[in-house]
Structures are given as structure tokens and as C-alpha cells.
């Protein structure tokens, strides 16, 4: 894995790939939003489907200290697999969408 100083670039690269996947229905777009401090990364869906506005968060990642917290993961295969493939070790990934008492059993960091 690259140094944690470059972790934001790794996360951005991974998430940008998802913005290139077209939706099969509706007038929807996937957009990446990165906070000014470079610690929060949100992948959102927005647009219209059947005259209904769609706006929601697919993925929310946050860099907290030396770990990547996954607060929201709405991807079919899960963003954690992408992080592992990028060389980020499981002890640097927190599945923050699980309750604290479940995290020790996930094979990832607890917090």
C-alpha cells in the first residue's frame, strides 16, 4: 500500500471508476464528492427515474487517523474488496456501518 499520505488519491481513483458506470434505467448520474480537507469521500446517485427525483449516498468513506472508515456501502460487491485489491490492509479498514460489538468478528479493524 502507498503511504497514508497518498490514501486520499487511492480512494479517489477507486471511486471515480464507479462514476463511469452508466445506469441501466432513468436519467441518473453517479458523482464523487470529496471534502475540502480530503478526509471524506461520498459517491452519490442523483437524477430522475419515472418522474421521481433520486438523490442518495451510495458510499461514504472517511479517513480518521490512520484508518479508512466505511460509513455507508451501497455497492453490490462492497467497497472493502476494492480497498483490499488496492493494497490497503484489513487492519486499516473499519466497517463503520456495523455496530461496535460486531466489528471484532469482521476480519477488519474495530475502530
Record the SSE blueprint.
Layout: H1 7-19, E1 27-34, E2 40-49, E3 52-64, E4 67-73, H2 79-85, E5 93-94
Parallel strand pairs: 4-5
Antiparallel strand pairs: 1-2, 2-3, 3-4
Mean pLDDT: 94
Assign the structural class, choosing from mainly alpha, mainly beta, alpha/beta, alpha+beta, or little secondary structure: alpha+beta
Low-confidence parts lasting 5 or more residues at pLDDT below 50? none
- CATH superfamily placement: XisI-like
Distance between the termini: 19 Å
> How do the strands of the widest beta sheet line up side by side?
1-2-3-4-5
Number of strands: 5
**Regarding CATH, which class?**
Alpha Beta
Question: Could you characterize the architecture of this molecule?
Answer:
The relative contact order is 0.16. Helix 2 links the parallel strand 4 and strand 5. This protein has a 5-stranded mixed beta sheet, with helices on one face. The protein is an alpha+beta fold. It is 18% helix and 36% strand. The protein has a single domain, classed as 2-Layer Sandwich (TATA-Binding Protein).
Keywords:
111 residues; globular; 18% helix; 5 strands; TATA-Binding Protein
Compose a concise summary of this entry.
The protein has helices spanning 7-19, 79-85, and strands spanning 27-34, 40-49, 52-64, 67-73, 93-94.
